[in-house]
Amino acid sequence: MRLAMLARNPSLYSHQKLIQAALDRGHALDVINTLHVHMNITSNQPMLRFGGKDLPHYDAVIPRIGASITNYGLAVLRQFEMQGIYPLNESVAIGRSRDKLRALQLLARAGIGLPVTAFAHGPRKAEEVIKEVGGAPVVIKLVEGTQGMGVILAETFNSAKSIIEAFSTANVNIMVQEFIKEADGSDIRAFVIGGEVVAAMKRTGKSGEFRSNLHRGGRGEAVDLSEAERQTAIRSAETLGLNACGVDMLRSERGPMVMEVNSSPGLQGIETATGVDLAAKIISFLETHARHGNTMTKGNG
């Protein structure tokens, strides 16, 4: 197969592993800087150009689109899709996952466990929002935040109210969620490919840090999932229409609760923790589905 990967930094661990996995299985893989692609949107003949030349026809495309360039990256990916090129994850599915509020709305509609979450516009609603999620402490999240950035634990009612009012006054979109104390600074990342959980790790934040992200000094270790956790991860991926993703969950007294679904999860932490070659599994998935034109069940909404 001839594969393309949309990525701005080919030297990242995840990208290097995908390149090597493709080569090991006898495929060609071109790394294409998403921001250097431009589109020729012509009736009946959509084209993509890179480096002054038309891009060739690929069998599949692997989108590794950074959060900061989501809109442009999805436009480029849609152009690949219009050419009939199979995407690891479809543009519409990535768009759902990147809009955290929309993703939670879709997951809630599907009956998937979530922390109580409130969203309102304007500082006057701060007190109501805090009460709706059960009172302080609360977790306040920027809708556009990634890798634990833009996530704040407000331990008292007054601090929560001040933070919400400050963000609202600055016209920054935030969500307020209940704090799951029993998670104790840990979460679970389940890696789903093709409707199956292929690896899972427990992430624990460093001392004094409630965020468990590895980018913020957390550590990861392999973990066995309960059946409820496994099914929650699979259903979350299916609801958003993602073929490959990381599903982040908290272990709560009410069962697994989904925090986020990541459509471009990093491979290094979870491969190191579990020993699973996820890059090879992704290429294997594309071998089966790109060649036969099959697609996963698409989410709706």
Structural commentary:
The chain is of the alpha+beta class and 301 residues long. It has 3 domains: 2-96, Rossmann fold, CATH 3.40.50; 117-179, Dna Ligase, domain 1, CATH 3.30.1490.20; 182-292, 2-Layer Sandwich (D-amino Acid Aminotransferase, Chain A, domain 1). 33% of the residues lie in helices and 27% in strands. It has 9 helices and 16 strands. The protein has a 5-stranded antiparallel β-sheet with strand order 14-13-12-15-16, sandwiched between helices. Strand 1 (2-6), helix 1 (13-24) and strand 2 form a beta-alpha-beta unit. It is globular and about 55 Å long. It starts with a strand and ends in a 9-residue tail after the last helix. Mean pLDDT is 88; it is low at 294-298.
Give the key terms:
301 residues, alpha+beta, Rossmann fold, Dna Ligase, domain 1, D-amino Acid Aminotransferase, Chain A, domain 1, 3 domains
Top CATH class of the largest domain: Alpha Beta
Summing up helix and strand content along with how strands pair, one would put the structural category as alpha+beta
Gross morphology is globular
Low-confidence regions:
294-298
Q: Please name the CATH topology of the largest domain.
A: D-amino Acid Aminotransferase, Chain A, domain 1
**Cα-atom Rg, whole angstroms?**
20 Å
At the fourth CATH level, what is the homologous superfamily of the largest domain? ATP-grasp fold, B domain
Largest sheet composition: 5 strands, antiparallel
Percent range for β-strand residues: 25-35%
Distance between the termini: 32 Å
- Percent range for helical residues? 25-40%
Mean pLDDT: 88
Number of spatially distinct domains: 3
CATH architecture level-2 label of the largest domain:
2-Layer Sandwich
Spatial order of the strands in the main sheet? 14-13-12-15-16
Number of strands: 16
**Total helical elements:** 9
Element pattern in H and E: EHEEEEEHEHHEHEEHEEEEHEEHH
